[in-house]
Amino acid sequence: MIQRVSVIDSHTGGEPTRLVIAGGPDLGRGPLPERVKLFRAEFDAFRSAVVNEPRGSDVIVGALLCEPTDPTCAAGVIYFNNVGYIGMCGHGTIGVAVSLAHLGRLAPGTHRLETVVGVVTVTLEGPNRVSIENVPSYRLHQDRAVEVPGLGTVRGDVAWGGNWFFLVSDHREELKLDNIARLTDVTWRIRRALTAQGITGTNGQEIDHIELFGPPSSSAADSRNFVLCPGGAYDRSPCGTGTSAKLACLIADGKLHPGEVWRQESIVGSIFEGTAQRDGDRIIPRIRGNAYVNAEATLLLDSADPFCMGIRS
Ligand code: PYC
Predict the structure, then answer these.
(1) SS3 state at 26
(2) Is the peptide bond before 258 cis (omega within 30 degrees of 0)?
(3) Which of 19, 61, 161, 290 has the fewest Cβ atoms within 10 Å of its own Cβ atom?
(4) Who contacts 285 (Cβ-Cβ below 8 Å, separation ≥6)?
(5) Is 89 tagged catalytic?
(6) What is the predicted pLDDT for the residue at 116?
(7) Around Cβ 94, how many Cβ atoms within 10 Å?
(8) Residue 91 C-alpha to ligand 1 middle, in angstroms?
(9) Is there an atom of ligand 1 within 6 Å of 89 CB?
(10) 3-state secondary structure of 215
């Protein structure tokens, strides 16, 4: 038996998004967090089939288009990756907006999208240019120390930008593309140490994204980052939720003023523009970037194929 799944592939600053527009699981009409529970419990093989090898790769972020519960939203989106599910995805949302515009399903202007962690707005500013107003973001801990085997004491901030991040500026690493293996090893050790030492986000949520910051290589940027994603891949984009977390820290430190532009460069040289407004003890981040559609495809899930549902670790 062959199951057909229609997808639109795009990339945002080099980071891929695979949007499932038809052929995905029926998760009902409940709240998105409930639908994710059902996705994980009953259809996790579908997640793996769409994003994992041999059809995908560790880098791809999947996005399942679904009916929103909020009638003011144009669509609902559930994001997933090579190891599980993420609440929000900034590069993914820019990619989803450009993909929906490519299909003629989203007109220029501002629209609301429902995600697992809240409603975000997307503004299509051109065929490839999108800004997103992300969920309220905040810094939970400033300058938190973690003892990392092989590295010693590493200090960083814990912040929420739609996912949990540990943000490290004080390190000895070179943020260069030819240093990826070392950067991946260092950030993976930090992540494991945070978990082992019980350093978490709110309500014990795991910090599953680690960001290192350094000087930009482009004079058009304020900073360069390396972002480790939950499944061990690094973000080719500057990471929309990671840039939101960074904005929360910069505003809290008084290093950026509301409305001022922060240009975050990724490890591959792509740039997101970020601004933020204060909202009580949180900020509302706005992230602007470019995405391009690079495939309209039908995935074939052939039950005779031993690797039909992807290679899972
Ligand atoms: O852009 O928010 C983001 C993101 C999260 C994981 C990969 N990209």
Answers:
(1) coil
(2) no
(3) 290
(4) 133, 134, 137, 161, 243, 244, 247, 248, 274, 275, 276
(5) yes
(6) 98
(7) 31
(8) 5
(9) yes
(10) coil
Query: Do 230 and 47 touch, CB atoms closer than 8 A?
Result: no
CA of 228 to the centre of ligand 1 (A): 10
Cα four-point dihedral sign 175, 196, 137, 234: positive
Question: pTM for this one?
Answer: 0.98
Catalytic site includes residue 239: yes
Q: How far is the CA of 61 from the centre of ligand 1 (A)?
A: 8
Mean pLDDT calculated for residue range 229-258: 98
Å from CA of 303 to ligand 1 middle: 31
Q: Whose CA is nearest to atom 8 of ligand 1?
A: 239
pLDDT for res 312: 87
Closest ligand 1 atom, CA of 88? 2
Task: Check: CB of residue 178 under 8 Å from CB of residue 260.
Answer: no
72 contacts: CB under 8 Å, gap ≥ 6: 112
The length of the chain is 313
- Are the C-beta atoms of 191 and 229 separated by less than 8 Å? no
Give the pairing type, strands 138-148 and 152-160: antiparallel
- Which neighbouring-strand residues pair with 283? 137, 278
Contacts of residue 24, Cβ cutoff 8 Å, sequence gap at least 6: 5, 46, 64, 65, 66
Model pLDDT for residues 52-109, shown as the tens digit of each residue: 999 999 999 999 999 999 999 999 999 999 999 999 999 999 999 999 999 999 999 9
Amino acid letter for position 257:
H
Choosing from 116, 239, 264 the residue with most ligand 1 atoms within 8 A of its CB, the one to mutate for a pocket test is 239
Q: How far apart are CA 122 and CA 108, in angstroms?
A: 10
Residue 313 has a pLDDT of: 73
Confidence of residue 222 (pLDDT cuts 50, 70, 90): very high
